[in-house]
Amino acid sequence: MQSAIAVFDIDGVVRDVGNSYRRALADTVEYFTAGAYRPSQAEIDALKSEGIWNNDWEASQELVYRFFETQDGDSALPIGEAAIWQDEMGRGGVGIDYPKLVAFFQSRYRGPDPIHWTGYICHEPLLFQADYLERLTQAGILWGFFSGATRGSASYVLEKRLGLQAPVLIAMEDAPGKPDPTGLLATVDRLEQPADFNQTPVLYLGDTVADMYTVQQAREQQPQRSWIAVGVLPPHVQETSERSQNYAQTLKQAGADVVFSNAQELTPERIWELVNVAQ
After folding, report:
1. Among 51, 142, 225, 262, fewest CB within 10 Å belongs to which?
2. Under a CB-based contact definition with an 8 Å cutoff, are residues 255 and 229 in contact?
3. Is the peptide bond before 179 cis (omega within 30 degrees of 0)?
4. What is the DSSP letter of 161?
């Protein structure tokens, strides 16, 4: 029986993070600039379109740095948890305690209690249900997850929200950040049957430029395998047709073979069509 592997990113594909991860990112930048700057969704998209800011903690730090690089750093002035120094410590004269930045971000995203989460994560809308994955299984399609989210966050949505039982998952702690393909390759290794080693076609579904770049790099490392980059439009860009079209074009320019508005549009029938074309 013909087989294929579908690997899913989580944020923007399985769950809507427009009012959770992205909100925590904006909160963090606003706090570390003492309220002087809060990035918009479009500005966050612009940063992520560079293809290297998949980690939202690092993206938060980068936006703080970029803000201060546009400011006058003539005097030493405390700014929230960041500070401007005359000797231009850090970038743009700003020094940031990265562990404090991460802790602040997590206090918004997970909530102040690290055990009993009450933060933004508790209110993330799901973008598909477990029965979609069951339809893939019935069609002979293997599936798993590769995400830049922490394992705790990823497991929360997959197991507690979707009800999956120990799904194949490579998370932040398990592999280098995207677009390094190590995590994607590890996910595939866990799913692929030994007899099909390096032969099973793989579709990777993601919502960012970094996700598309990850497929390109995986293709370079395993050129004998069919790799299909599937772009998914995150909900926040679907508010207008213009934003949807522009975002889809950005994903295609980054290497997407096809772009959908929702992962569930990638039906088993569509998967086999894409696999047959790729082969």
Report:
1. 262
2. yes
3. yes
4. I
